[in-house]
Fold this sequence. Notes:
CATH architecture of the domain at 3-41 and 97-169 and 261-336: 3-Layer(bba) Sandwich
CATH topology of the domain at 3-41 and 97-169 and 261-336: FAD/NAD(P)-binding domain
Structural class: alpha/beta
Largest sheet: 9 strands, mixed
Helix content: 25-40%
Order of helices and strands: EHEEHEEHEEEEHEEEEHHHEEEEHHH
Oligomer: single chain
CATH superfamily of the domain at 3-41 and 97-169 and 261-336: FAD/NAD(P)-binding domain
Mean pLDDT: 91
Amino acid sequence: MKKKYSTIVIGGGLAGLISTYLLAKSGHQVLLIEKKAYPFHRVCGEYLSNEVLDFLTRENLLPPDYAFPQVTKFVFSDTTGKSVSTPLDLGGFGISRYVLDEHLFQRVLEKGGEVKSGVQVESVDFDENSQVFHLEVAGGDTYQSDYVIGAFGKRSKLDKVLKRSFIQKRSPYIGVKYHIKTDFDSSSVALHNFDGGYCGLNAIEDGKVNLCYLGDRDQLRAYGSIQALEKEVLWKNPNLRHYFLDSDFLFEKPEVINEVNFERKNPVENHILMAGDSAGLITPLCGNGMAMAIQSGKLAAEAILSGKERAEVEALYETSWNSFFKQRLWLGRTIQRLFGTTKASIFARRLI
Length: 352
């Protein structure tokens, strides 16, 4: 027999973990399915805005055994290396996804949430007659649920299965991440431009620095390797050349993702409540992706916990999501043009 849940959450990033935690805490029978096994690294900026600090503190969702660097200023450099610094009124702190996601995972288990990790969801179908979702995972196991929250990230096999419109468009961006040990001002989050992209740095726990950049897929093809791309393109910004030459790189190899897409997505599709990057990816100058994921996971759980009929739950979530994020994401897609070229990045520096 297929096991039935009140909600199944697909994807165990921040949005998926937060929604699962809140639903489990409220006594719902909830299953989280994550294709990787915790703990693991994700390609992510690893800077978290203070807009979600009160919520995380109240729910005991921050790992207690670490000192997290407090970030109070923003540093921006154009492709030539010229920089400008400005205070961050709200501020935030640095924390790795490896540490944060593992802590949230343990909190989900403590609240009675069920987690299946190392499992890929192959299909999701909604039966209009029974008003029930049917899911199949790799290996053939099947599950049922009243609701599904889609938190499967920037780009997933499920996006193709669900025939989401954005998936038809190829994205020119790749994402690359390292952890490094280097001389870095821990009170700042930095964004350094290079031809075709930009690189963010911020301090995280244990004296480490997260270095994560968005690059051009065609440039990678042209140069043949990540290392050659970095040397021939990123190093032309002297700020980045310094960090690549004068740092200890802690990973054996970088974390890399392809097809990073900033196209518009819908917060509800096929009756699935999309949360986190599944609902839209933000650019750095217009919001904090980690905070947005946490907020959207919270909104999705609250919509389901409202106890309303399905149509009302979907409408409530879509309205809340649009209120929080729609304008911000639109602005992000517009301001994205200020990154990755000399003239635009110089203009952005002067504007800041």
